Amino acid sequence: MTIISSIKQYSNQHQAYALINGLVFDSLTGRNNPGQAVVIEGNMIRAVCPQAELGSDIPQVDISGQTLLPGLVDVHVHSEDWHAPLYLAHGVTAVRDVGSELNAVLDRRSRWKDSASAPRLVCTGPVIDQPGSTWDPMTLRIKNPQEARSAVDQLVDAGVDQIKTYVMLDLSCYQAIVDQSHRRGKFVVSHLGRFVDARQATEAGVDEIEHLSGVSEALWWERNQASPDWIWMKLWADVDMERTNRLIDLFMERGLRLAITRLVWERMALAADPRLMAHHQRQYLPPALAGFWEQYMPHNLAKRSYPQGMSPPTRAARCQQAAGMAIFTSQLAQREAPILIGTDTPLLHLIPGFSFQDELVALWACGFSESTLLQAATLGGAQALGLEDVIGSIQPKKQADLLLVAGDPTVSLAAMQQIQAVARSGNWQNPADLMQQASQYVLHAPQHSSGRLNDTY
Ligand SMILES: [Zn+2]
To answer: How far is the CA of 78 from the centre of ligand 1 (A)?
Structure first.
């Protein structure tokens, strides 16, 4: 009998059962606890205790050779319905949508809320920006600080969980958004741009910065201010370690979180990489999205639209930018600065779920340890979503959002590619079945996109 079928005979009858003989990943310490039994009943974790203390009446499921982890959290996605089985199959049981059309994402959030076959969804609705950026269907435009405050109120009243700011905001509008969001009790996530750098944003009190945006402008603020164009990409060619450390000091003092999205930049630089063009993951890529990805190929770059002040980058410039960001990221690893795992799926070569696994490896390649990454992927993500009381660790009274992997991922992330079973709210599923659902979608997906996808990278 497989593990799933032995668990299901108990979970289907709403009976409590214990997982025994495995390793249990403790997201609070980053270490595995051996010899622990985890008791699950319905959608909840009931107890975590030494195996010897288990009552004899409780059914036991042997998970030896495997590690039990809290469900993974992707803090940066642009969700669509077809993503759901791909997220779950890769252990991602919660996602945060940081830029989508308002009604569509609120509707998806309520449909996914109690669904066993989709992750939990937290959302910001559209991004707030001033004129000049190009991601129109999911942008709420404002022109002054007063409108900025009303935009926050409008989104909060509509029911969004957090607020996301975008690239063309000036400092006074930016400060108004952060202040109004905090007055309304909402966490602020920023993709920064030309007029507000990462130092200014941190001083304004932002909670989280995406993509290392605004960082090169903060490192070289005098060059940024002297330039008539927006030269953020070129500024990454020169990473000064003293300036880097001063900026990281500020981030750490203020408790700022960084969703690095390392893969976004690697894959933009390597858009036409033959290994990616022939990758097995592409069998899960809907045809309309493949068409969207084509826009990023080097021969199409000059035809795309860019935010005001930014000119089409060359491939060499993108490679140099990604290299500069890798140096900065490896310094974050050395300093043990808090990071989050976000993917920005479904941008270029970033298929839901697969991209999360790949992002872990990409950050590992910048120097983060397996344990740090697994903590960021579980408890860190839960905190960023404001769900740390519900998910993010294997503790009594938390929801049973869990995954089981073969091997020990604190020793090698290779174990994360060996997912045996995934539970969303105590409903266990076989990853192979979920992947089957994902293939069915691709077979029947429309050939042309709704035109919703557009962006400014
Ligand atoms: Zn994004």
So the answer is: 6
